[in-house]
Specification:
The protein is mainly α. It has 3 domains: 305 residues, no CATH class; 64 residues, no CATH class; 109 residues, no CATH class. It is 66% helix and 4% strand. The strands form 2 sheets. It has a 5-stranded mixed beta sheet with strand order 4-3-5-7-6. A two-stranded antiparallel ribbon has the order 1-2. It is globular, with a radius of gyration of 26 Å. The chain starts with 8 loop residues before the first strand and ends in a 12-residue tail after the last strand.
Length: 519
């Protein structure tokens, strides 16, 4: 379907199919290129805990393969890696982790750049269905601008490099809603199958996608009439294909896989609905992803949509976003990657407003000089955004982290039983130090426990239970440790310790006979 304004110019150039394809390819390539800066930086710049979880899983799958490269590993290290992977709780199907492990097998070693590249490609390619969708209800100028926003938003650049299912999920969401829109225009069996398959894939990859593909699907169905819908066998088929794979996996994982706690626990806290700070925190989290002006523009852009189906889709996406926040009331304001579907939504709104501006400019018939000047402004703005993303990617250097945690693991002794108040739930120590610690709760964990109404165990009993059978207590979260006065004072009063670069290591095997400090 061609753009609504057939005789428009695209960025002041004569509109043609070749020009539009060229611009799409250019922005896809720019989006790809900007994400390759500092590719070798360890994955601690975004959602570190989530990424390290996936790296531990992928390593476990790789180490369990009978290959020349895995047989050459030290036996103890290989056994630890397999066991650590097996002990990880699963929420989503580990599709990307398996793909990464198979790629490790092909190249003969672990390399965290591999899953980073996969995530980058998934996100960047998501621009294709986004552009195809936008062409259906806005001009080519708007569709190109929305694509540029999606590909070049600095937060999206960083987040889309993350080893987690979300970049793949966003790409599948975009394909799903595009194909659903196609089906709403022509309800052929082919369109129904394609729409339901990609909807099912999106929900299977990560269940939160259901808000962004399920609500629009319901909207399209009801728009055709409820009585007509309940008599349409195609809709039942589409619902089954869309939901059954995810439902079957979730049921099996929660029961046979013993993952019910990780799937359903500590996510929904209705008491937050009555707290004003929750709404403010949610809004500030959304603002940190797309910024104030684009966010407000995107909401108001609903009224600029020229077609009823487009309004229906866009409105359903916002309803889905709000429902996700209500259901996952804690994650929506604490985990910024829950905001990732907001990026293509805001991109659509941005594109609508940009299209309106360009349409108005064209009616004024600007001079050649004016067109060149405006083109230069757009080019300069694009360059600034790219430079901002590059600056973000190179500003934090984590290359020393791998050796730091490896040396710490060597010092303590690989596979030594320890308790730790440490970074990222012990994943850094597990991945690079080959030690899987029992974890002492952080202050953040205590907040979640209070929201969940979990009983607070007396300190002495809690300490005795957690440290039983452990040789050391490692502290690397120094500020958190200093804030937990009971733990801080108790360890210094009862155990000798060694202080190193960013850590305390308390010897639980040789308690002090009297109050004092070691060193």
């Amino acid at each position: 379907m061609e753009s609504p304004i057939a005789d428009e110019r695209v960025l002041f150039l004569k509109n043609s199919r070749g020009l539009r394809i060229t611009l799409v390819i250019v922005f896809l390539l720019i989006g790809l290129g900007v994400r390759l800066f500092n590719l070798s930086n360890p994955p601690l710049d975004f959602a570190a805990t989530r990424q390290l979880h996936s790296l531990v899983l992928a390593r476990g799958y790789y180490y369990s393969m009978d290959l020349t490269s895995t047989r050459s590993l030290p036996a103890e290290q290989r056994a630890f890696g397999i066991k650590a992977g097996q002990e990880e709780l699963l929420v989503e199907p580990p599709l990307l982790e398996h793909l990464t492990a198979y790629t490790y097998a092909l190249i003969g070693r672990e390399n965290f750049e591999i899953p980073r590249l996969y995530s980058i490609f998934f996100w960047v390619l998501g621009g294709i269905p986004l552009y195809l969708l936008e062409k259906k209800f806005m001009s080519a100028n708007g569709a190109i601008a929305a694509l540029a926003f999606y590909e070049l938003l600095p937060f999206g650049v960083t987040a889309s490099r993350s080893f987690q299912p979300d970049p793949l999920m966003v790409m599948l969401i975009l394909w799903a809603i595009y194909l659903q829109y196609q089906w709403s225009e022509s309800s052929s069996l082919k369109n129904a199958l394609l729409a339901s398959i990609f909807t099912g894939l999106a929900v299977f990859v990560k269940s939160t996608a259901v808000f962004f593909v399920g609500i629009p699907f319901i909207g399209f169905v009801l728009a055709g009439g409820f009585r007509k819908a309940i008599k349409n066998w195609q809709i039942y088929m589409m619902a089954a294909i869309s939901l059954l794979p995810a439902l079957i996996y979730t049921t099996l994982s929660a029961t046979l896989g013993n993952n019910s706690g990780s799937i359903f626990g500590s996510r929904v806290f209705p008491q937050l609905y009555l707290q004003p700070y929750w709404y403010q925190s949610w809004f500030m989290m959304a603002k940190s992803v797309v910024d104030y002006i684009p966010l407000f523009m995107a909401v108001l852009a609903f009224f600029l949509l020229p077609k009823n189906k487009a309004r229906l889709l866009y409105g359903c996406l916002w309803i889905g976003y709000l429902l996700q926040g209500i259901v996952f009331s804690y994650n929506i304001y604490t985990h910024n990657y829950y905001q990732l579907p907001l990026i293509p939504m805001v991109a659509i709104g941005f594109g609508l407003i940009f299209a309106l501006i360009m349409e108005r400019i064209q009616t004024l018939r600007p001079t050649v000089f004016a067109r060149l000047f405006m083109a230069a402004v757009l080019l300069f703005g694009t360059a600034l955004v790219v430079l901002k993303s590059r600056s973000n990617l190179i500003s934090d250097d984590y290359h020393n982290e791998t050796s730091y945690w490896k040396n710490l693991g060597d010092k303590i002794g690989q596979s030594t039983p320890i308790v730790a108040l440490t970074h990222d739930y012990g994943y850094r120590l597990s991945l690079w130090g080959f030690i899987k610690p029992k974890l002492w709760d952080t202050q953040g964990d205590e907040v979640v426990q209070r929201l969940a109404g979990t009983a607070d165990e007396p300190f002495d009993q809690k300490f005795a239970d957690i440290t039983k059978g452990s040789d050391y207590f490692l502290v690397t979260l120094i500020d958190d440790f200093n804030s937990q006065k009971n733990l801080h004072d108790y360890l210094f009063a009862h155990y000798p310790y060694e202080q190193g670069d960013g850590y305390y290591l308390f010897d639980l095997q040789h308690p002090l006979t009297q109050t004092g400090s070691g060193g």
